[in-house]
């Protein structure tokens, strides 16, 4: 008889939460809290767990006593809707919603009618975000063209916004590049070397990794020797951006002298080794920035006009994202001189407005005066624009050379300065316009 009474007073409560597959940012997620009990329901409370479980943020409450529900996500503004008493819907999830959630269910104890019996379940919500931006640039540029020494060349592909981190790989002319992976040295170990190859110990065996990418290029040169990277570090230069512009017909432009075809004799390997490295940089929003580097010994004869693409795979993408660049030496710089009719005392600007082709990487510009020095006594200047302040009459007829170069090649273009008008008979420049 006593056992029958106890069985009437003791109630049971079990809580389970259905597991969730990974979801993509922007999708709607339904959290289902299933419970079984023979007691009378008191409340259902949903928590979002943060900081490793130390903080539980109450996001939703169902109060059975008053048959009401309350939202505790003030910043989210109706981002959850009660579909059933045990279900919460989160529309348009964000990366910040990623993490564990708990459902707490309370029922009244039959014995006291006031005491509440609690049980809970938990689930982990995984929110994925595809990369939202990928870009390719050349490292250590602008850089000069080298006719006498081999030099390394590094492409840097950066993918931003992905969670989890995407996989990044390179292709050349549409063919997957087989790479030799190596670990990038820390900033202190690199010492400013090109792509951080100095001091690295790249793998060179064909059998070290069975999971590596399929081969598209041989790892050995025609004589069966492994091609090595040149470790001389190119200098860093800076210049302004470029935009296409047609030169004025009043400007006398001398035909260019193209030297990009004067390729050095040290180039010998047609199948270089490609070295690959990457780093992951976690962001405050939970995404990861991936920076991948592809480094090889440049061959201007073979690499000019080569199409390199960076592709990014991610579980939230139905197909890879891609961006591409074509390596190209500068050809046919377009110069603009302003004013088109320079007078004594004017400030003359000669600007590179663009090229006949798409140039990559960014070129280095060097200006020289043919047969003389610049007004300030210097032998050359760098930058996209040459500025000649308060030009004297003596510069009439002087010629200036613009050398545009990148690691793929170099080209020279000349332009002549015509100065109109003099202040004194014989073309003498007044003292206040003379250069010190």
Structure description:
This protein is 4% helix and 40% strand. The protein is mainly beta. It has 3 domains: 2-128, Immunoglobulin-like (Sandwich), CATH 2.60.40; 133-242 and 263-326, Immunoglobulins (Immunoglobulin-like), CATH 2.60.40.10; 334-433, Immunoglobulin-like. The strands form 8 sheets. Strands 6-5-4-9-10 form a 5-stranded antiparallel sheet, with no helix packed on it. A hairpin with a 5-residue loop joins strand 18 (275-282) and strand 19 (288-297). The radius of gyration is 34 Å and the shape is elongated. The chain starts with a helix and ends in a 16-residue tail after the last strand. It comes from Oryzias melastigma. Residues 26-119, 333-418 form the Ig-like domain. Residues 1-26 form the signal peptide.
How many β-strand stretches? 30
Major β-sheet strand ordering: 6-5-4-9-10
CATH names the topology of the largest domain as Immunoglobulin-like
The residue fraction in helices comes out at under 10%
Low-pLDDT windows of residues: 1-9, 74-84, 186-253, 256-263, 431-436
Query: What sort of overall outline do the alpha carbons produce when their principal axes are compared?
Result: elongated
- The CATH architecture category of the largest domain equals Sandwich
Tally of separate helices: 3
Helix/strand class: mainly beta
Determine and state the CATH class of the largest domain. Mainly Beta
Q: How many domain modules? A: 3
Report the CATH superfamily of the largest domain.
Immunoglobulins
Q: Summarize the biggest pleated sheet.
A: 5 strands, antiparallel
Could you tell me the mean pLDDT? 77
Give the CA-CA distance, first to last residue. 118 Å
The amount of beta strand, in percent, is 35-45%
Radius of gyration equals 34 Å
């Amino acid at each position: 008889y006593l056992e029958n009474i106890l069985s009437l007073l003791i109630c049971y409560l079990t809580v389970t939460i259905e597991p969730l597959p990974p979801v993509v940012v922007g999708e709607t997620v339904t959290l289902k809290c299933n419970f079984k009990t023979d007691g009378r329901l008191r409340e259902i409370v949903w928590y979002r767990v943060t900081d490793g479980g130390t903080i539980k943020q109450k996001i939703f409450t169902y109060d059975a006593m008053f048959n009401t529900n309350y939202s505790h996500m003030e910043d989210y503004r109706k981002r959850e809707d009660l579909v059933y008493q045990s279900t919460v819907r989160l529309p348009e999830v964000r990366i910040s919603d990623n993490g564990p959630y708990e459902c707490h269910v309370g029922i009244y104890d039959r014995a006291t009618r006031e005491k509440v019996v609690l049980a809970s379940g938990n689930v982990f919500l995984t929110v994925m975000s595809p990369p939202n931006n990928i870009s390719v640039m050349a490292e250590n540029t602008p850089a000069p063209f080298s006719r006498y020494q081999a030099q390394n060349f590094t492409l840097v592909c950066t993918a931003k916004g992905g969670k989890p981190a995407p996989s990044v790989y390179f292709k050349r002319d549409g063919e997957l590049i087989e790479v030799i992976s190596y670990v990038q040295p820390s900033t202190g170990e690199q010492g400013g070397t090109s792509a951080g190859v100095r001091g690295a110990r790249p793998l060179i065996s064909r059998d070290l990794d069975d999971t590596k990418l399929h081969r598209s290029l041989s790892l050995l040169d025609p004589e069966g020797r492994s091609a090595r990277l040149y470790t001389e570090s190119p200098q860093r230069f800076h210049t302004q951006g470029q935009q296409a512009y047609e030169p004025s017909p009043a400007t006398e432009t001398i035909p260019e002298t193209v030297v990009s075809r004067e390729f050095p004799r040290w180039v010998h390997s047609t199948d270089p080794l490609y070295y690959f490295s990457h780093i992951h940089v976690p962001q405050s929003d939970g995404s990861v920035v991936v920076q991948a580097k592809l480094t090889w010994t440049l061959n201007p004869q073979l690499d000019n006009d080569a199409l390199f693409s960076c592709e990014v795979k991610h579980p939230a993408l139905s197909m890879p994202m891609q961006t591409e660049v074509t390596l190209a030496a500068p050809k046919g710089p377009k110069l603009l001189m302003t004013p088109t009719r320079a007078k004594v005392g004017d400030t003359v600007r000669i600007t590179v407005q663009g090229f006949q082709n798409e140039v990559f990487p960014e070129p280095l510009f060097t200006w020289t005066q043919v047969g003389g020095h610049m007004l300030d006594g210097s032998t050359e200047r760098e930058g996209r624009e040459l500025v000649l302040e308060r030009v004297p009459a003596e510069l009439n007829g002087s010629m200036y050379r613009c050398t545009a170069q990148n690691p793929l090649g170099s080209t020279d273009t000349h332009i002549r300065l015509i100065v109109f008008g003099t202040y004194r008979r014989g073309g003498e420049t007044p003292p206040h316009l003379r250069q010190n």
